[in-house]
Fold this sequence. Notes:
A: alpha/beta; FAD/NAD(P)-binding domain; seven-stranded mixed beta sheet; disordered C terminus; B: FAD/NAD(P)-binding domain; six-stranded mixed beta sheet; binds flavin-adenine dinucleotide
Amino acid sequence: MLPIPENIAIVGLNIESLITALILRKAYHRDFVNIRIVNIANPTPHSNISLVDKQLNQLLTHYEVPEAQYLKTLKAVPIIATEFDEWSNTEFIIPKKHEADIFFHPLLQEISSLKRQHFDLRLDTNDFFFSHYLSAKKLQITSESFPFAIENGYQVDSNALHELLVEIAENNHIQIDRKDTFDFRLDTSGNIFSEDFGDGNDNEYIFDCSGFSQILTSKLPGYCQKQLPKIRQNNRCLSATLTNTHQDRKITCVAMKAGFLTICNTEQITEIQYFYSSQYTSDEDAKTELLDYIQNKKHTNVASLNLYSSGQHLVAAPWQGNCVALGLTAGFNQLPVVSSIEHLMLSVTDFVDSIQIDANEDEIKAAFNARVTKRYEYCRAFGDLSLLLQSKLDFPYWLIPQDNTLLSEVSGAMLALWRKGEDLNALSVADIIGEQAWYALFCGLDHFPQSNLQKHVNENAIEKEVYEMKRRFEGYSNNFTPINDSFDKPADQKTIENSAVSEEDNV
Amino acid sequence: MYKNIVVLGGGTAGWMSAVYIAKKWAHKNFRIQVIESDAIGTIGVGEGTVPSIADFFDALGIPEHEWMPKCNATYKNGIRFKQWSSVDGHEDYFHPFYSELDAFHKQALLTSIALRTQGFNTYAHPDVFSVVSKLDQEDKSPISSENYLFKSAYAYHFDAGLLADFLKSKAIELGVEHTVATISDVKLDNTGAIASIISNDGTEFLGDLFIDCSGFKSMLLGRALGVEYISFNDTLLNDAAVTVATEMDSSIPSATYSTALSSGWAWQIPLTHRYGNGYVYSSKYISPEQATIELLEHLNLPEGTPVNHVKMRVGRFAKGWEKNCAALGLAQGFVEPLEATALHFVTQSVIDLVSAIEDANYSDANRDIYNKKLEARFTSTRDYIELHYLANSRTDSKYWHAARSFTPNRRLQRLINAWQRGENIAHVLNEEKVSLQLFSLEAWVYLLAGKGFYSTTNERTLKVAPDNVNVNIERIKQFVNISATHFKSHKLSLENLKP
Ligand SMILES: Cc1cc2nc3c(=O)[nH]c(=O)nc-3n(C[C@H](O)[C@H](O)[C@H](O)COP(=O)(O)OP(=O)(O)OC[C@H]3O[C@@H](n4cnc5c(N)ncnc54)[C@H](O)[C@@H]3O)c2cc1C
């Protein structure tokens, strides 16, 4: 068994560390456990928009922040799906799970399985997800007369979230040390101690939330990165922040010349990040491409433009000795289907659960590490397969064949199940990317046999079922009232004012 | 080859079989005759059904608005069992038919109840998880608004006499010949099969296939062919019923009510214009006169109100199809009416019979397969109904002691043991190959949990439930309440039945 924590130090003062502190504070009473956050100088670029899920609402509710207030303060816009534009012939969404979808999942499974067996059947995947109807019809996401819920997330203002979390932390006996230097030492068994933390007894745990700089984690003796296949790797991120924007309840991923954009927005700003490979475009071209995109989409004022280096990574063993790497420190995937905060919250909960397990310390840590890294791998596999199976024919970045044999264990297994026409549930990690998302991805990318197609004898009956499903969803959507007009549609065009553009190149 | 088909009996079973066969084999040029006696009446009860009946009407291509009004039919969401248990809080419970809305909380139901069987203090009554149960409580039909379409499997109540008349007219439209005659003799051929049946005026009816729908008498399968009869009276005590109709209330219930009385149980079946009521009892424990008094009291009817008496034979023939004769309806067997399964046996049997014959090129090659399937249907239905009695906890009469005092068969014993030890009964049902077609896993759980058949009934000794249990009962209650608002009143749905 592991020692019950008495002193907890969290390195880095940021949204991730504050959330970590609040989850731990909820689990451990202030009379018995000290929790402190140690600020450090941190070059990790931070996004202006954070993507969070409902778990954060629950955490804040625990700290008596009413949901409505929190959403308003953070200028939150819900996330009901991630939309993939330009990846294949049609746009498709990876929906946030809606409880009403469950009744139609067997039909999606059946049709997709038949299509994989060379049957020529029509399949508009979006029709199978209630989020799609809510989005297309611009409806509220909750209704008093429809008791099935959506597991939506939120796009929130990072600065406002940071401020709110600091306030809650300070009111809940979480000490925040704001200093720029920070010294620590490693003992022979690989545990970290620091005068800055306290007395260095056994019951001390240290969480590394220093982001990409991995201040503690990278110094640990067993530190190494898990090697995952490199499929269309992007090494740059060009990030634009726009004001006066429209509001979209979907996060959008757009395939570009040499990578992809991810677009998210709060009530006040939009953030567009272009992850690209400098092998296939220059920074200057990427910038022009991004600005053209912004102009074409009739988005509005660009307030800032920043360029960073960006890669994906995963620490092989996030928990070593007394130090646990969390959030961006532990891993990063560029495709935002699961946000870094979601990963972090699950990992901290796993940690709390681990402390209660009656087993040998090494086994507990190994199990924790396996679980946490598996989650990242699932998300990475999801991204890798998106990048591998897209059907773009226009640019070298997308056309260069990738070495399929290098697929990760998870991607390989998922792809094999899919190609064999089998159900995908066998491998899903329920708490991170559900089965439905995988179906949405493979179907959305239209990854089906394209030749030797045959007619299916039950085609009419199947079409009838699909029709019936759509009728039912249409009916369900009548329970919802429309949202404010500013959502889901671009605001009137305003010209892009380049004056606000600033560049910060950390490459 | 079966080309000349003779159906003996013009009760519900006779006409259901005739119309189905005529529809299925409409273009075969087969001759189908129904022979019924005007001297021997039909049983006249049998007004509750299970959801498979809807498939039967679908197969005939007859929509609800056509047949329901003609048969004074109503919708049935399930059965509410009242006073079967003396456990606090479990005085009554609802056995709902399948609905997607209830399936949505199936896991929560199973988890909560499994924990209760393990001695934890969780929600132990199944009604709270069920939208369909709520529909019963609010006298609502299973028909929802267009904005809330979820699949559900509901059934019907109807006037058995009117339904037989309706089916008769349909059958005749389809070319079925109808003869009124009382059969008094049966001629066998040299293989022991039936060659013809002869009426008491000497008319001989020849046939290739005989469908015996002659009621409890089982004139052809039982009497003429001498197929062995297996009685269920060692475990199921009831052998008679007394029935009476009463006036309908201002609101029409959408379920059958089964209330335990001193020596059996009473049904109340709502039709559009009246209730059908009956007291099913054991003549060993109560006389017909006493039963009548008890029923009238239960229904608040004055002494001397005219009633009907019916005798029942509970059991089955070892084979439902022998030589060239298949029996359907009461002539095939009868597990007592507690779950209103008799017409389900008729419809499923005739569907199975037709396909068994078709698949064997209109011969009897599939007879054994058919008989095995029928046997399995009897076995699971009988098991389920026996469990109702085994799990009863009434202490007020000798009858109820006796009703649960028989030695359960191996399957039921394993099931009860597993349940009381807090183990998963799905495994037992699975290992014992109990068919879940008519009674699903949830149905078994509803029965046991509904009656509060837990090994610990003292709530104070229950343990606090583990806090990682993922059952949010408040949310489920809210879900049930909101869902129910989308369903119409039963009465209104019936008035609105139109093409
Ligand atoms: C108390 C009770 C309650 C029940 N409740 C339900 C219920 O809720 N739900 C349900 O599904 N079922 C119920 N049943 C069963 C249901 O009543 C029967 O399954 C159904 O009515 C079919 O009966 P039948 O057609 O087989 O027989 P019957 O109705 O008895 O018909 C027999 C037919 O055979 C004819 N006949 C008999 N002998 C001869 C002869 N010698 N010559 C010519 N014709 C002859 C008769 O004239 C008659 O037409 C109940 C039964 C009982 C006893």
